Predict the structure.
Amino acid sequence: MHVSKSSQKLKEMIIKAIEDHKITRDEYDMIIHLATEDGVIDKHEQVLLSQLQDMIENKTVKFSAE
């Protein structure tokens, strides 16, 4: 399966949020931008976004002001 550059960058940003247990609004907005910039959210991006959303909902990853 081919993984796009945006998917790879998206993965890196999500992994960073998981490791930090926090995400800023700017980081979240960038993740959404990366996922939608080519006009298509592919399967890989869908999975990554779903996992991030689940972690935000269960507070494994929390929004941070910084």
